[in-house]
Structures are given as C-alpha cells and as structure tokens.
Amino acid sequence: MRLVVLGGGESGVGTAILGKEKGYDVFVSDFGKIKENYKEVLISNGIDFEDEQHTENLILNADVVMKSPGIPEKAPIVKKLIEKGIPVISEIEFAAPFTKAITIGITGSNGKTTTTMLVYHLLKSAGLNVGLGGNIGKSFAQQVAEDKFDSYVLELSSFQLDGIVDYKPHIAIITNISPDHLDRYDYKYENYIDSKFRITMNQTEDDYLIYDADDEAITEWFKNNKTKAKLIPFSLTKTFNEGAFIQNNNMEVIINQDEFKMETESIALEGKHNMKNAMAATSVAKLMQIRKATIRESLSNFQGVEHRLEKVLKIQNVQYINDSKATNVNATFFALDSMNSPTVWIVGGVDKGNDYNELMSLVREKVKAIVCLGVDNKKIIDAFGNVVDMMIEVSNMTDAVRMAQRLTEKGDTVLLSPACASFDLFENYEDRGNQFKQAVQNL
C-alpha cells in the first residue's frame, strides 16, 4: 500500500511516521519548504520526501493520500488525485482506525482552542491518561504511533473534517458557527456549516453531541437535519432538563439526572463566550464521570490560552491585551464585547471576506481610536472611518503599539484583535501575538 503525504508539517510528518510503522510505502511531498527539524525526523525514520515541488509520477501512484489541512481542495495536484479516484483524507481519518482510544472532537468557528485546552485540563487533572492533538499541539497520528493514551482531546478545523469518511468522535462539541474561511467554501456559508456538522455524521446512539443552543446557524441546521447522537445543549438564556445553563449566577450542568452546580464567579475564565466554553467542557467532564470537586478545582484554576484575550501588561494604568488569535469578525466581536473601558483597537490583516457591520454597535460603544495594521485596510477604513475619532494606518507592530500608546489615557485598554488572518505581515497569528507582546514590553 502506497501512502502519499501532502505537506511536511506537524500533521504530515506524524502521518508519515504512523504510516511507516503500519507497513505502508510512504512518500512525503511539500510544495513549499519543509522545516529543518521536520526534515531531520523524516531522515531519521528513513522516509522519502521532496520539497518545493510535487513530482506527479511519485504522487499519482498512491493508494491513499493524506492532505494537510492548509492545502486547499482547489490545488492542482489535489484535483488530479480526485479525478483519478484516489482517496484524499485528513490525518484524523488516517490515524483513528489505528487506536482503540476514545476521542473527544471539538470544532467551531471560535472558542475551540480554549474549549479543547479546558477539556484537556479537566481530564488530565482528574488523572486520566489523555492526549491532546488535532489542530493543536503534537500530531495525533504520531501519538497514535507511540500508543500511550486511553483518550484524546482533538481540536478539529472544518478543513480536517472535510477529509473524514468514517471517523467519529465518541463526544463531539460544536462551540458555535459564524462565517469564516468562506474563501475555501465557494463563498457559500451553508457549505461551511455543513462542513462543521461532519463531526457528527458517523456518530451513533451511543455517542454525544454537545452544542450551543443559542447559535443561529446550529439551530437552523437542526431544523432540516438529524444526527443519531445524544444531544447535550448549552445556553446562556435557556434552561434544560438535560444540558448546561446559567441560573441565579450559577452554571448548572445536568447529565443523566445528575446535577453539577458552580458559581459563575468562581470560574477563572472571564466573558460570556468563555462561560459557554466552560459549559461545553464541563459537559464532557460529566460524561467522563469526573468527580465534582475535581471539576470545580480545574475550572477555578484554568489559565486560558496564549494569544486569546491574554493580558500582557499594565503600563501607566493602561491594560494591553493580546487577542491575536481572533482571525475572524466573530472572535473580535467576543473580544470587544468583553471590554469594560475605552479601547484603542488594533485591527487588520488579510481579510477573508469579512462583514464588519456586525461590529458597528460595539465599536460605537467601546472604541475611541483604531490602529489599522495590514497591507490593505480599505474595508476597515470604509466601515469605521466615520464612527471613531481617530484612525491611523501603520505597517509594523512596533509602530502599531507606539501609536496606540499615544492615543490612550489612564484607565484605557489597548486591544490587539485583528479580525483577519496574519499572513500579510507575519508568519502566523502566534508570531503576530509575540511581536505585540515584545513591542508592549519595549514601551
């Protein structure tokens, strides 16, 4: 059996290692450059690879192809594979059959990293033998090859879900759905929504789907579609006989007639959206039969995720917050919604078909000045030019932070929440967030 891996990053190299261990003839091909550390791993495992090209006769003879999530379906080599009828799958689909571990799959437009990390924190604190993978951390396939864990918490992007055929998580979470990555879905929102719901397509009556019952796209989908999984909703406004909700400043989670209660004030994560992430994660903990005292303790000491509403420093009574992970409008909506003081907002990057109108009321209410940090800021300027008093364009992070500082007074907040991808000026959102933190420390 010949396994061809497209993309020599974390998921690609991990898949190659697992494939080799399971007796496949493995070849890795990357159209870009493979990083040195990954090359070393491939060489030490005796795996053939190429980079900066795709040699067709070495690829089109595959029995199965694992495509890294970053490579679009529209890539010429992927089109040729599909035309030839060669299965093109994701790392998750390839690796899952080789493990008996149960998986908890988490997807959504926003909140999935925080929810994934929180679920992992809850299960690990309870002493479970649990791995973390998917879109985050170490490759799931490589962990399966090393075979150390009884369960996995997997963050799954829509791109990873597009490449599944038979994979099913025992517990699935859909945190929310809002327009994102529409450039990869023919600019059709319904295609993207269907892609997220692939997480539950193979689930049976013995599996669970935890979902946001306040989310419009999710509730619409349920009107016309069904899943066999047992449904566990969570909501900030409704209550349930089975599910998670808020009542009298308590978060309540009822599963299998067993109730868990905790004061919302004791939960470490701040903001309404984080309350939802906590409800989703607690539902998993209950299904995994973790003790209530352990859940309480874990929820009260969880530190949050880097680059997601991360408090960096307070300088001259101005709070600097790094929300570089906000790569779409909906994530930035949550960030602005949780601001309690006049805010200087650093925004911009590569626009993925954003509609800034949904931010309008929050910008009017909370934002005193905008610093545009992107190569093309026209849409942002058109949207908010008449709404805020000050609008400035800069082309690097140092200038962005310096200008933001000049626009602040005591008691203000400077918020980096770009609502865009980062590939115009930065390597990725982590690089963008780290440059922000560095620039703040240099003030």
TrEMBL record:
Alphabetized InterPro entries for the sequence: Mur-like_cat_sf, Mur_ligase_C, Mur_ligase_C_dom_sf, Mur_ligase_cen, MurD
Sorted UniProt keywords: ATP-binding, Cell cycle, Cell division, Cell shape, Cell wall biogenesis/degradation, Cytoplasm, Ligase, Nucleotide-binding, Peptidoglycan synthesis
Segments forming domain Mur ligase central: 106-284
Gene Ontology CC entries for this record: cytoplasm
Enzyme class: ligase
GO biological process, one term: regulation of cell shape
Localisation: Cytoplasm
A Pfam family assignment: MurD_N
GO MF terms, alphabetically ordered: ATP binding; UDP-N-acetylmuramoylalanine-D-glutamate ligase activity
Catalysed reactions, semicolon-separated: UDP-N-acetyl-alpha-D-muramoyl-L-alanine + D-glutamate + ATP = UDP-N-acetyl-alpha-D-muramoyl-L-alanyl-D-glutamate + ADP + phosphate + H(+)
Gene3D superfamilies xref list: Mur ligase, C-terminal domain, Mur-like, catalytic domain, NAD(P)-binding Rossmann-like Domain
Signal sequence region: none
Top-rank taxon, per record: Bacteria
EC number: 6.3.2.9
Biological pathway: Cell wall biogenesis; peptidoglycan biosynthesis
Domain Mur ligase C-terminal: start-end pairs: 307-420
Amino acids binding ATP: 108-114
Family affiliation: Belongs to the MurCDEF family.
PANTHER family xref list: UDP-N-ACETYLMURAMOYLALANINE--D-GLUTAMATE LIGASE
NCBIfam families linked to this entry: murD
Function recorded in the entry: Cell wall formation. Catalyzes the addition of glutamate to the nucleotide precursor UDP-N-acetylmuramoyl-L-alanine (UMA).
HAMAP family: MurD
UniProt name for this protein: UDP-N-acetylmuramoylalanine--D-glutamate ligase
Organism field: Flavobacterium degerlachei
Lineage, uppermost ranks: Bacteria, Pseudomonadati, Bacteroidota, Flavobacteriia, Flavobacteriales
Gene name linked to the record: murD
